[in-house]
Amino acid sequence: MRAKVSPGFLLLLFVLAALCAAVGWAAHALLLPSKKVEPAAQYAIGQVVQGHLGRNLSLAAKAEWVVQSSVSGKFAGTLTSIPTDRQGRISAGDVLCTVDLRPIFVLPGQVPAFRDMGMGVEGTDVAQLQAYLFEVYGRDMVPNGKFGDITEGLVKKWQKDHDLEVTGVIPVGQVVFIPSLPVNIAWEDGVHVGSEVQSGTKLVKIFDSTPTFMIPLPEGQLRATHEGQEVLLEYEGHTWHAVIDTIIENSEEHTLLAQLAPVLGQDSICADTCESIPVAGLKGISANVILVPEEEGAQIPLTAIRVDAQGRTVVVDVAGTQYPVSVRTSVGGQAIVDGIDVGMKIRLWGDPQQNGTQFNPQNGLGEKAQSEDLSSQSEK
To answer: What is the pLDDT of residues 330-349, one digit of tens each?
Structure first.
């Protein structure tokens, strides 16, 4: 016979089940982590300022004079005088030295002096002599390479002006032609006053008309330098502009050298101030390699730059208006941009005390870079 279940007992079971369900739900709610509520976007306020940005690598350059050729005597005798210094700079018309008290003059010309030049002689050597005499005595004439009456008259005048025997003939050995003047020279070892010289004895070394500039690259700096970079050289009040031409290995010292070249359109790095560099060469020239060319204009922190839905680079002012900008350069968490005015108040996104993001004009925001100090006011 089946026992009857009272209605009261069923009610009790229902209440207990409901109570267990409520306790389970409460425990589940207490034990699970709460969902994080994202706060509203935070930004700071900054101001666009007039600034300039650039980045240089400071190194030390050196300059060396390279031997181009040599000058030999054309007659035998005793060397009776040379310049006081063992090295120096000579120009057209200077006396190189004296042999048996006879002066040897330096004149510009590509063809060596190899014979007496007098009436009736023709050739390129005569044309070189004429070019010098016409310039010195102001004769508006074109050298024709023919030694005639006019050339003879000018030679006699030149000989008289230099207390030489007036013959109208330039004997071999009285002048030497050097392709480029003025030029630096150094006397050959063993050549000194009192030396006995023969025809063909080498007297002086002729250096290139301009020195060679190079920068020894310290270990670890190769990645920062490359061909074509501009270099600013400074020495004793002189400022010279150059570019890195090639990077070579110094086999003797097992180091790398950046060889420099004149900027486009220039023949020489030091131009008319090359004579300030001694013949022995020079070390320790201040050299600034331009890693990032300097730009001047509206300067902002990189934290102000955003990319909108259309992919444009923009800056947002305090009112929320977006201004498309173009980035000219960026260095150390700061950027020079076009498209906004100096003095404008702008929003700076993120914590300005944290590292900013280095802007890359080609692909938006890229590598990390330390932000510059910023005067700003936090605002929600």
So the answer is: 999 999 999 999 999 999 99
